[in-house]
Amino acid sequence: MKTPILKTLQVESKERLDAILASVLSISRREAKQIVEEGFCAVNARVVTKASLEPTVGSTLEICEYEDFFKKTAIESTLVPQILYEDEGVIVLSKPSGLTVHEGSGTRESTLVDWLKQNGYTLAPSDDSARDGIVHRLDRETSGLMVVAKTEEAADGLKVQFKDKSAGRYYVAIIEPPIKEDVVVDAKIARHPKNRIKMSVQKEGREAKSAFKKLLLSDNQRFELIAAKLFSGRTHQIRAHLAHLGRDILGDDLYGFKSQNAKIEIPRVMLHAAVLYFYHPLTNKKVGFFDTPPDDFKTVFSRLFTKENSSEIFDQEFISSLFDGSN
Question: For residue 179, what are the contacts with CB-CB under 8 A and spacing of at least 6?
Fold first, then answer.
């Protein structure tokens, strides 16, 4: 049992343990669930970690001091996002790899949302304050472009666009081995049956569709720079669909890439959201942004690709033109 004890009480009604804690401590159900799962509660002197448990009425509930658990580490200077554009409705930024977009179960480090609030940016309110302003997201390991809403009107407009795909992003990635040809993968995705951190192609999953375009072979022809477009927004979609094709993104140990294959240091997952487009939710004007891959990506790229035309690859018009008419 963790110490010290913050509160001891008698259970007065038959409810889930996380619901009892949320009410007693005036916190969210998500926070209450985390407290239980981390072993901060005991029922009749026995530690419990199942948030859905319904203690018997009259049971003694002990809650340990949990404040330190929710203290977040500060964002490192290397993980600070770069603001590329801002007006009264939206913020367009470049998110570095390693920065989590918003708080989730077990998140201990400060997030993109935390940073924006701490630095005085106005964000559209949401049902969960940890997700204020967020209308789409990037995986923690992925770098690149995001748009954040500052008002409810902007948030509503952007959410509709990301749902109907009038707004979206194009990505670049370095993979192994090369794909045989440009390909569209239309395959449902769900949680991996054996590793709940991963996603995988499964018949009972949610609809997911991705397009992949060949860009440039590495000097030894073992690796390839590709571009990707999503027609849906599933968690780890690009990574799961590439895994379905038997391909790995460099640095993506979760989905199977073996770093020693490249014989150079791979600092992170080599996936970057390079192009962002949407209709401004307050003016209805179509806007587009381009974000050159960061130094860590370009360093890996330069060690594997030395062809003369490689610099022409990272261009907004060129990457966007690849997907003209895609369906």
Answer: 212, 214, 224, 226, 245, 247
